[in-house]
Amino acid sequence: GDSVTQMEGPVTLSEEAFLTINCTYTATGYPSLFWYVQYPGEGLQLLLKATKADDKGSNKGFEATYRKETTSFHLEKGSVQVSDSAVYFCALSDGIQGAQKLVFGQGTRLTINP
Amino acid sequence: GAVVSQHPSWVICKSGTSVKIECRSLDFQATTMFWYRQFPKQSLMLMATSNEGSKATYEQGVEKDKFLINHASLTLSTLTVTSAHPEDSSFYICSASGQGAANEQFFGPGTRLTVL
User: Fold this and answer.
1) How would you class A100 by CB atoms within 10 Å of its CB: exposed for 0-12, middle for 13-18, buried for 19 or more?
2) Mutate to test the interface with A, among B35, B41, B43, B103 (most CBs of A within 10 A)
3) Which of A3, A33, A67, A100 has the fewest beta carbons under 10 Å from its own?
């Protein structure tokens, strides 16, 4: 079945550092890809998404490009802030709409030090 | 964005008792709700999908008689863990999507269940 693999955490960076969190997927069809973020004590929030190959999702300075040839959707940010500290989940669904079943990676805890 | 709440946020119960967890969409009508389970340092695993007014669809390996799901209205779904045992201790998260939610899933903050 479909699956998502993320780089293991925790990841600790200094403020203004460059961030990459790797995500690769296995799917039989053409999934939509998502990054969710979970801040302490809160529910998961959609950070960005891409629905087809070569699409780039972006939000709050974060970016991820849907790479079909490498089955990847790596999350990047050029300059992280302390407020970016959270757990990040990569996910896929087998449809365009996020209202369909989501398959999640294991999550990556990110800590940004001032 | 749309808001989803869960109640309670944490619960401790004795083995053998039943526990009900509520999931509410506060500002939109949730035609579909999803229930997930998350083990420590692990991913969210989908347990079941429920559509308002219909029986829930359970994922393979999830006992439907143990995890009772009711989605009786467009704003409320409940998950009842029946005859809970320590192995049922986990973090349970719901999400909701529907009218006014832009086809996106909105997640509740989760409920921590501890069974003694």
Assistant:
1) middle
2) B43
3) A3
